[in-house]
Amino acid sequence: xxxxxxxxxxxxxxxxxxTSFATTRLRPLTALFxxxxxxxxxxxxxxxxxxxxDFINFTNINGTASGSSFVNxxxxxxxxxxxxxxxxxxxxxxxxxxxxxxxxxxxxIFLDNGAHNNLRVTFGPHFRF
Length: 129
Fold this sequence. Notes:
mainly beta; extended; seven-stranded antiparallel sheet; two-stranded antiparallel sheet; single chain; 129 residues
């Protein structure tokens, strides 16, 4: 599950020299669940594919991004702007003992008057225990 506390929106005006930053009040709550199938389970390098499904809830919070905003988003899932979401993806991970690095890429698709695609690429440390 992920929650975006704040997101900046950047606008460059037609004169090319002026830029404006604004923080939006849109704070999506995303929950995805599904299996991971991997190749190379005994070596230090593994390749995997995944398929996840669940929901994305879009909340418009007028206050600051705080813990209460997250709680309000979770409480609003049955009643708010909630849409079915799918995430087909894959990646690779390499381990050195219990520590490793993981690269994951996929397409987060949610349905709202048609399909909306969002490319997601993540890279970072990975721990196994």
